[in-house]
């Protein structure tokens, strides 16, 4: 479990681990054709995970690295398409609204609009170059990486921007609770049930473990440490 930090510098170092973890995890949900030249990516994620005190997460990450190293590129592309792209019915739709609004089972529902609002709240707009809906798993993971980095940047200024960081902390926690944590488990279970490659099975296991650990331990400790270190907390 992540330990409580005593100083702002220690807090920032811990948050860099979370930022990098979400960043590398998001990259692994790219099209395998784009991953072909990124052979070091799982190893970079594994290096980050060593800073997290959770042996099951380490084991899961080791499996992810091994399965990527041993994967056949053609089989990966086929599995990726069947799971996340189509053209047939997707075996594991990578969109939050499919799981958060199961009665409708559609994208761009009310939950997607909430995602867009939270992105804007953090100063982000979805690039028109990104052709998927805003609640695509890769974009939600990238958002977590971005908002954590924005908090780090706000607190790394000569005069730390505590008010801005406080707003981003609350945005981050709200996003985790209402979105990523709320649908990652049924999503990853569909990957596990339907994947035909060891890599996507391992990616599903690691994603579920990483997000659950972050929400239950790291994010909770982050909020407690931030509240304790924030000089404005007492004036609320």
Short recap of the structure:
The chain is an all-alpha fold and 236 residues long. It contains 10 helices and no strands. The longest helix has 33 residues, at 162-194.
Structure commentary:
The chain is mainly alpha-helical. The chain has a single domain, classed as TorD-like (Orthogonal Bundle). The protein is built from 10 helices and no strands. It has helices spanning 8-27, 32-35, 41-49, 55-69, 73-85, 96-100, 110-121, 137-155, 162-194, 198-229. The mean pLDDT is 91.
Q: DSSP strand (E) fraction?
A: under 5%
Please provide the ordered H/E string of secondary-structure elements. Answer: HHHHHHHHHH
CATH architecture grouping: Orthogonal Bundle
> What would the principal axes of the Cα set say about the shape?
globular
The fourth-level CATH homologous superfamily is: TorD-like
Treating each run of at least 4 consecutive H or I residues as one helix, how many helices?
A: 10
How many domains would you count in the coordinates? 1
- What is the mean pLDDT? 91
Largest β-sheet summary = none
Structural class, from secondary structure content? mainly alpha
CATH topology grouping:
TorD-like
Total number of beta strands: 0
How far apart, in Å, are the first and last alpha carbons?
A: 29 Å
Write down the CATH class: Mainly Alpha
Low-confidence stretches: none
Portion of residues in helices?
55-70%
Radius of gyration: 18 Å
